[in-house]
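Person: Please work through this fold.
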Amino acid sequence: MRLLPTFRHSRSVGLWPNVGPSACGRTRGGGLGPPAGRNASIPASRNPARQSERRPSAARRAPGPGSCVFMVLAVLAAHAARAATDDRRPTAHPFSSSADARGAMELLEAWDVEGAESLLAELEKKAPDAPATRYVAGRVAFERGDYAQAAREYEEAFGDRAKDSDDWQLAAASEREMRGTVQEESAHFVLRYKPGRDALLVPYATDALEAQLRALGEDLGWKPARKVRVEFLTTPGALARLSDLPLEAVRTTGTVALCKYDKLLVSSPRALLQGYGWLDTLAHELTHLAVTRRSRNTVPIWLHEGIAKFLESRWNGAAGRAMEPGGEALLSRAVRRGTLVPFAKMHPSIALLPSAEEAALAYAEVFAAVELVHRKAGMAGLRAILDRQRDGQDFRQAVGGAVGMSFAQFEARWKESLRSRPAPPPDAQFERLVFRDEKKRESRKEREKSWDRGSLGTLANVQARKHAHLGELLRARGRTDAAAAELDKAVAIAGAEHPVLARKYAIVKLALGKPAEAERALRASLKRWPDEPANHALLGRVLAETGRAAEARGHLLAANAHDPFDPEIHEALLAAAKTLGDAGAVARETDVLAVIGGTKTTWTAALPGKAPEATGYLRIEKPGGARVFVDGVDTGLTTPVEEHALPAGKHVIRLEPEGAPPVERTVEVAPDALVPFES
């Protein structure tokens, strides 16, 4: 569970690198910059595992919604230029000679997959074997999640050069990543995940998604034409491979999810060292899908992210509750210093900003902007903005028309509103997310310095920090009364609102049989820091032990929305469900604990033909440029390889560098582990 009282998570989600008109060759005034040029199909490398590290995003994106593939003249020019210097690449794109194919690509650019399917049916009648037809068939298959079929169609379209194309490489990478997954369905969603612990995500995810969908129907007037696909991924490398974000950007900004290719790509909370707000994230990404579909992909990135951030809390209540204290602190400081992130700099993606802190500030800014729109014009105003842009208006006209003023006046009001926001807590700070494979080992001596730089490091008063740290050391040595005395001193100096201090204080008070004092401290802290999952879990325990099961369940579910793999949360939820006589919740939590215990590996889906294989990951850094063979099979990869999924167990790895002797080793891959290859 998370121990630091900081900004809940640096979620750079819904980061659509080419959303809206500027990515399609039109500049958005106000400094939003030139169009993002790109090659529509052929990358510089055949190695899918390294695509996300090799080139800038706009230059290596596989064609997909938001990719401007209908800019035929630009595409042909790019291919002609490349053909002059690299004979591996085709001189023209397969769809360049077909008006129907270009029309299908325009529809896909607008995320109208159903319309593209209709045009594809016409193409199949007119010229079923034409490369243009097969290319569109591949794109449609990819948008529908049939990655193997998409790869086959691209091979028909591109011929022997198919494996040089971004399209084929992305389809192949997606097929590999989804290999061995199982599928679960609810009324409006299809979830895919690897059998194992991620199975427990299913009931909570479908409940949250269905609730968010109902809310989006009310707020934005949108419902999907068919079931929405959600793919859970287990590593940051997987997210990079299946999107167009460099892995470095994923790690730097803490990107955990995207809405792209007509689906939601979401990191499992177990990919993070201490979890993250994964249910809010699912709601955030679904909101992106609604905005894109209703507007036909015409909304600029700042407004896209602002609407998604403002509405992400609708799955469990009112809109506008997603601004964390850490975000308020970043915003307040930027206003004082004059260091706000310009809307223009957020294009083409917040995920490409230089730091997690700057990304978090950008989210806070756009949240405040949409909050102002909502205050002026309500949900009807948000719907009008989407519809106006869908119908061809510039975003300035759309926003200004909705709020009844010019966009320049709106910007001025927005900046004025930032100066009058309530002051954040004085100890509010931001900390970037840490992925599990980034965990650093600390010595005991380093851990014991936490009074000044660790979990208590954001407690402003130094004396209170020292008393709290001493109290924690005494508690760890079993001296509970002495620990309580030190923590009482810390609370007397600093109050009980600091999340870590409140938690340490409450633990000691519970050990001394004083639940009322523990409860007061936790409630005071949660009033100021309402998204602190560890304190929700602890307060849930206090409430359950004092006979308030219904209220306890609410706090336990709030903790579960951040860290669903903590067995103590589910044991407490099971006890609360039994007390309340909720048979459905009893069955759910019993099954969840079976998943955590390893006796259950899927939620309701049948396993595909055999027992699931546990999966681990192989990393190979050196020698560079070597072909990679696993158990005698050519993987098609060349080193360096960030992550390559393999069944847990022993494997023979052979590297064949060009002009050098091969290297062969046997490695043992542990489940869910990232194993380096030592050459």
In short: Confidence is low (pLDDT under 50) at residues 1-91, 446-453.
